[in-house]
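Curious: explain these tokens?
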Amino acid sequence: MTVTSSEFLFTKLRCPVCGQAMDKKEASAICRGLSAHCFDFAKSGYLNLTAGHGGMGDLKDATDARHRFLSKGYYSILSDRIVELLSEAEPSSILDAGCGEGSYTNKLAAVAPVIGIDLSKSGILLAAKEAKRQSLPALYLVASLFTLPVANESFSAVTNLFAPCAEAEFCRILEENGLLLVVGAGKEHLMGLKRTLYDDPRINPGREDLPNTMQLIKKETLTGNIRVAKEDIEDLFAMTPYYFRTSKKDHDKLSGLEYLDTEIAFDLFLYRKN
């Protein structure tokens, strides 16, 4: 009997309460433990497996803004490179840890069946709807990166794009010689935006939570320049950490712009589990 991508991904799930394998029964996921913990699928096809773990994740306004902005292709230099790197590795399965609204995750589904995990219900909803619309081999879960509801050594690749790096969990779920791709903002990322907002813009410090126990096999920085249309500037700002740290006076500087020219830069780190 042929196993579908959906069934293949489902076999990797583990109950967030007792850790037992799960079975899909109609519109629910039920664990094989004595208590038969039950989790219902949302209409869009995602599962909420938080079981009391973790916080809220990004709010709807932020995930909507990110979805609109990324759908315009402004960061295609990054999404294309991520797909290229993972395609070279030929993984049998991918877990996108901190997938947000799924813009990168759904592109990874062209490489291998993928599970996307994030605490943001609004982000997971957008991701699952798009995956369903395109009939992609993708399964989305609301869950914490630090208590991933998946089996040990069940993925050949993990992607961690701009989200916290839960190294211990990633090592647990990666197969032997599995790959971890970590992405963060480069030093000059969005300097054009910051020069518009602030009198003394500073370069980005880079990621400070990189893995300590895995083998770094590739490191590179992607750079480019984009012109952001007037109608997209606010969405770009809303998806950055500066949104909540900027005064109204500085925020208002964006309203008079007809467009925004800015640098973009992304640091990519590819690790192998030893």
User: Anything to note?
Assistant: The first strand starts at residue 22 and ends at 25. The chain has one domain: 5-272. Residues 5-272 form a domain with the Rossmann fold fold (CATH 3.40.50.150).
